[in-house]
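[Help] Beginner question about ligand-bound structures

Sorry if this is basic. My supervisor gave me a protein sequence and a SMILES string for S-adenosylmethionine and asked me to "get the holo structure". I don't really know what that means in practice or what format the answer should be in. Inputs are pasted below exactly as I got them.
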Amino acid sequence: MIGRFVGASVALFGIAAYGSYKINEAKQYKELYFDTLPDKRQYLLQQHQNAAYVYDQTFDSYEQTSKITSYRKTIVGLCSGKILETGVGTSRNLKYYPQGSDVTAVDWSSNVLEVALLKSASNINISYRLEDVENMSFKDNTFDTVLDTFGLEYYLNPEKAISEMKRVCKPGRQDIITHIWQKHL
Ligand SMILES: C[S@@+](CC[C@H](N)C(=O)[O-])C[C@H]1O[C@@H](n2cnc3c(N)ncnc32)[C@H](O)[C@@H]1O
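Answer (accepted):
No worries, everyone starts somewhere. Holo just means with the ligand present. The predicted complex, written as structure tokens, is below.
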């Protein structure tokens, strides 16, 4: 009996250790691989293009069961005036905008914008544009609110993206840039 217990424990420990070793190995490989890419922007863009049509199915139930949905409601409800949403993805914030909102939403992936365009919201005015958030075509001081949810970690140069968000936001108005790690939810 004790022998079996010890055997099972050793086996479980072995599986856990091997699993963690493999995960680490994959992480290191990914980092090394990414560093050697000649065109990182093109690689990242392609990742987003590929994920577009499965993005909502992947995250719908996860967001419902975590606190993300209520977090989106709260944050998006704070937006006012002329709003810019950066890295809008499949427009998962759409239904949380206050009635009458005037939103310009940008992303660099044409596929995610295609999915976003299929969603409708009759109570707000929203237009989608293909833009690189690190180099946007808007004039300085155009928007009252700039909203970014879960985008920062995906931008190749997040500092450049933030400085662009600041540039297009009117002085004294609000940038709402959010990035929440899962462990904080
Ligand atoms: C994880 S998704 C977040 C989508 C959405 N903000 C949300 O809350 O569900 C990140 C998005 O950022 C976009 N993105 C990444 N780099 C970008 C860039 N340089 N310019 C514009 N969009 C970018 C991706 O195409 C993707 O749609």
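A couple of things worth pointing out: The first strand starts at residue 82 and ends at 86. The radius of gyration is 21 Å. Feel free to follow up in the thread.
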